Amino acid sequence: MSRRGGGRRSESRREQPSPPTPAVQSGGGRGRGRGGSGAGRGAPGFASGVPQAGTSSAPASSQAVPAASAGPRTAVPRTVASAVPRTAASAVPPPAASAVPPTSASKIASTSTASVASSSATELSREVEQKLVLQAPPPSSKKDLRHPARPGYGSLGTKCLVRANHFLVEVVEKDLHHYDVSITPEVTSKKINRDVLKKLINTYRESHLGGRIPAYDGRKSIFTAGPLPFESNEFVVKLDVNEDRARSSGSTRSERQFKVAIKFAAKDDMHHLSQFLRSRQMDVPQETIQALDVVLRSTPSERYVVVGRSFFSPDLGGRGELGDGMEYWRGYYQSLRPTQMGLSLNIDVSARAFYEPIAVSDFVAKFLNVRNVSRPLNDQDRNKLKKLLKGLRVELNNGQFTRSYKINGISAQPIGQLTFPLEDNHTRMSVVQYFHEKYNIRLQQISLPAIQAGNEARPAYLPMELCKIAAGQRYTRKLNERQVTALLRATCQRPEQRENSINQMVRHNNYSGDELVHKEFSIQVQEDFSLVDARVLAPPLLRYHESGREPRVEPRTGAWNMINKKMVNGGTVKYWTCVNFSRMNPDLAFRFSQQLVEMCMSKGMVFDRQPMLPIQSAHPSQIEKVLVDIHQQCTSKLVKEPGKQLQLLIIILPDATGSYGKIKRICETELGIVSQCCQPKQAAKLNNQYLENVSLKINVKVGGRNTVIHGRLPLVSDRPTIIFGADVTHPQPGEDSSPSIASVVASMDWPDVTMYRGLVSAQTHRQEIIEDLYKTVVDPQKGLIHAGMVRELLIAFRRSTNRKPDRIIFYRDGVSEGQFSQVLLYEMDAIRKACTSLEANYLPPVTFVVVQKRHHTRLFPSDHKNRALTDRSGNILPGTVVDTKICHPTEFDFYLNSHAGIQGTSRPTHYHVLYDENRFTADALQTLTNNLCYTYVRCTRSVSIVPPAYYAHLAAFRARYYMEDDGSSGGARDGLPSIMENVKNVMFYC
Questions:
Q1: Signed CA dihedral, 922, 923, 928, 934: sign only
Q2: Residue 929 burial (CB < 10 Å; 0-12/13-18/19+)?
Q3: FRET pair for 749, CA 20 to 30 Å: which of 26, 224, 304, 769?
Q4: In the β-sheet with 467-469, what is the strand arrangement from edge to edge?
Q5: Contact 100/108 with Cβ under 8 angstroms?
Q6: Residue 870 has what DSSP assignment?
Q7: Start-end of H helices in 112-222
Q8: Which residues lie across from 763 on neighbouring strands?
């Protein structure tokens, strides 16, 4: 897992290897009640017109397109027209904001009046929903849904210059021609496809292609810098055996013949692209950009191993061992992007895990960590090996020739016991005897299973000792902790080193010397980093409790400490105890718990010094029994105090890893226990810094707050505002049936924004759209019941603050650019429905912001030697924001580096506004986001992504623990156990 939060957070996902603190409080009393579930219930405090069970949600508000606000302040994104009549019953957005086809859009506009009959509204709702159901394909282009235009540029902060790894691309304004390609017989390998096209170009370039060199994407398209001499044509290509790099094991032919059909498809308009880059056209000419991207990727795709948008090779910086039969290769990422300065080639250095090209027998020894492979494998090891090797290509060298095979499995028996029928089908021969008689090879490692190639009916048995894993095969499964550590150690570079590495890579690629890029397509790639105007935003002033010696603190370089400070709202813990599952001495465990209690008290918490039950030690094998016993004993002791329960269980984890998920599942989904787990190695040190960090987590888990921002938050402090964070985590590679986990958190303590309630939900495997933001359930007795995570959190906010939100800010993590439109349409519709299910006409303005951490833009100080421009790690300063030059030509986005680096090169977070009814200025949204990054409750540092998105990620991973420990591997929606209500009421995921 990568590290977030000043570069230290783990995360097992998204490139995946890709941070946050508490907010403002304005004086006066605060409602501190807790929000309940709310599913199917009327929401206290919302208007009496709330639809109850059996009624429909707001009329016509179930439209599947974002709707502009009908709240006190009608705010429509500036790229969206606002001429459509709007009523409470039909809050339909202007046509420009809709992804509905024009005929449907006009039909909607014509019916959006106060006189629409209820039957028409129902029919309209059904029609739109049918067009935009979850399974529907996303809009074909961004023409269908325009995102907000940039409202101007930010001006706050100290101006500075940074360098970005974006390289200007200059193209001649001439049309590109797109041709469809069909290769018969069809092959799945892009490498073979490229070999076929390369042979075709070399053979027919002058005679049939008009002297042109096409750029090929490896699949179905080629692009040319001008027309070919034909509309369509067919070619026959014969590929020599030595060119057929992935030839199947059964092939004995000296060459393979392919038929290639080329047919004109379209002409990509370069003038449209130039107009878009000058902001004279609003829709992105994606096809043209894709064509140019194919051109720039064509040559490296032939030279290197392609993984997504990255290229890898031992020639690009060497390789290194990761352990367990894996190694890393260095390489680079490349992507062509439209930006304000024009077309930009984003280039970054990268590294990826590959299988070591070694004998399979040596791989077995490394992977299973055994020195002696003379003993037969047990069933568990054999199954692990089979799962890992299946699908890999190996090269068998029998002393006479080398042949390539694809592994379909491994034998159940050792190779020394295997026989196969000869051609007469009566006589059987052993595999060992066959290799001895045919190739004069005496097999040595006959206790190992054989590799199975061919098909199940007629398998080919191959000795592991004679098979070598073919080079260049990437390892797609999750790396273990040792491998992750080795990869990070090998690839972690300080900013100046990384900048130099990127520089070397760009010069090594020599785009200007590439015949296809420069001569054929007249593309020029500058070799200098882009120099970009940036600003460093000031940190917010943080407020602690007035009784502390330092009630205010101004962070320095993204960090501060708790010395002389007390939590702004210290929690109360009367009922607590501690259990030790490690080998730690019981006396030391007692001392640790007492010192932790003293630390909590010194920081402002009200903590009973005496545990409810005596502190005990137990064996890790008894985890479930001990937790249940503790819960039962505490319940019995509090039987005469209705509503009272164990408030906190401090748990010293077992010395061996692997129990955390089980403990959290039992405590949070079965017993309703709020727990704080501690690592035994850290606990045994009795270190004050560690105790202080743990006390911060404990305080928020029992309902307290650590610190808040002193001052006003833009567009938050003036009116009741709820801030959401949402994320979806997917199963690790190789898990084909486990559900994805969606998580949504929301702030509960306006006018401050520090406490977040979190909800989780299992959903369809690898579905990125959050399915349970809003839903309805039909109950036989109660009728239609409204539910969903957004609805429940809105009700909880109302109960906690005694106000209903006048504004919604929704930070959505984990969405790629290709999914923007689809996610926005579905999730904005769900937010609208959740609001109107609570109260007719309730449509608070929404700002929907995508938070992107998995990108390859890096920002470097303009002068690495100037310490005024860098933090201690040599990275750009916390608060550095960029919204010019390398950002989108017309839309509202920015890069924000909100944290101080610890090691390596900091990655700024990219924020892209997809919908904005609150009409944020650039300064307002950038300042709000940066200030929120100082409100993360788990540390006294600013973090790299906005906290609600961070918390949603933490909550989703917590739920993944529940499922992994529970053994749930199916895709059933009910596989995720429910979190107990008292646990949901606090920030249990921290």
A1: positive
A2: buried
A3: 769
A4: 402-406, 393-397, 467-469
A5: yes
A6: B
A7: 118-131, 190-208
A8: 740
φ/ψ of residue 25, rounded to 5: -125, 125
- The Cβ of residue 305 has, within 10 Å, a number of other Cβ atoms equal to 21
Taking 3-state DSSP, the helix, strand and coil percentages for the chain, each rounded to the nearest 5, stand at 30, 25, 45
Supply the DSSP string of 100-142, one letter for each residue: S-HHHHHHHHHH-STT--HHHHHHHHHHHHHHT-TTSPPPSST
- Token pair in block for residue 309: 């948008």
Whole-angstrom Cα distance, residue 150 to residue 258? 51
What are the Cα distances from residue 386, in Å, to 182, 355, 382, 431, 451? 35, 15, 6, 20, 9
CA nearest neighbour of 355 among 382, 381, 380, 391: 391
Please state, in angstroms and rounded to a whole number, the distance separating the CA atoms of residues 67 and 927. Answer: 26
Token pair 């895990």 is found at 353
Distance CA 522, CA 520 (A): 6
Listed as own residue / partner, the contacts of 239-243 with beta carbons closer than 8 Å and 24 or more positions apart are 239/192, 239/195, 239/196, 239/199, 243/195, 243/199
Task: Please give the Cα distance from 641 to 633 (Å, whole number).
Answer: 14
Average pLDDT, the chain: 85
Question: Which are the contacts of 635, defined by CB distance < 8 A and separation ≥ 6?
Answer: 645, 646
Q: What are 293's strand-pairing partners?
A: none
CA distance 162 to 219: 39
Whether the CB-CB separation of 777 and 40 falls below 8 Å is answered with yes
Q: Measure the CA–CA gap between 346 and 289, rounded to whole angstroms.
A: 13
Return the residue matching tokens 């159940």: 412
Q: Which of 972, 924, 934 is nearest to 155 (CA)?
A: 924
- Between strands 648-652 and 675-678, the pairing is parallel
φ, ψ of residue 57 in degrees (nearest 5)? -70, -175
Which residues are CB-contacts of 438 (< 8 A; sequence separation ≥ 6)? 398
Give the whole-angstrom CA distance, residue 538 versus residue 541. Answer: 9
* Six token digits for residue 696: 């911060």
Kindly give the pairing relationship between strand 221-224 and strand 232-240: unpaired
Q: State the Cα–Cα distance between residues 937 and 689, nearest whole angstrom.
A: 15
Of 830, 789, 790, 844, the residue nearest 62 (C-alpha): 830
CB-based contact 544:553 (threshold 8 Å):
yes
Q: How far apart are CA 257 and CA 394, in angstroms?
A: 24
Count of positions (residues) in the chain: 990
Percent of the chain with pLDDT over 70: 83
Q: What is the SS3 string spanning 503-539? A: HHHHHHHCHHHCHHHHHHCCEEECCCCEEEEEEECCC
Residue 727 CB contacts under 8 Å (≥ 6 apart), including other chains: 742, 743, 812, 813, 814, 949, 952, 953, 956
Q: SS3 of 216, please?
A: strand
Task: Output the six-digit token pair for 536.
Answer: 């460093």
**Backbone φ and ψ of 896, nearest 5°:** -130, 120
Whether the CB-CB separation of 762 and 970 falls below 8 Å is answered with no
Confidence of residue 44 (pLDDT cuts 50, 70, 90): low
Average pLDDT over residues 622-649: 95
DSSP string over 458-496: SEEEE-GGGEEEPTTPBP-SPP-HHHHHHHHHHH---HH
Helix 586-602, helix 688-701: angle, nearest 10? 70
The token pair that represents 200 in the structure block: 């075709």
Q: Kindly give the interhelix angle for 190-208 and 286-303, rounded to the nearest 10 degrees.
A: 100
> DSSP character for 90?
B
User: Residue 41 — pLDDT band, cuts 50, 70, 90?
Assistant: very low
pLDDT tens readout for residues 912-967: 999 999 999 999 999 999 999 999 999 999 999 999 999 999 999 999 999 875 44
| Residue-range domains of the chain with CATH | 169-244+251-355+486-531 (no CATH), 360-470 (2.170.260.10), 570-702 (3.40.50.2300), 708-854+886-895+906-964+977-985 (3.30.420.10)
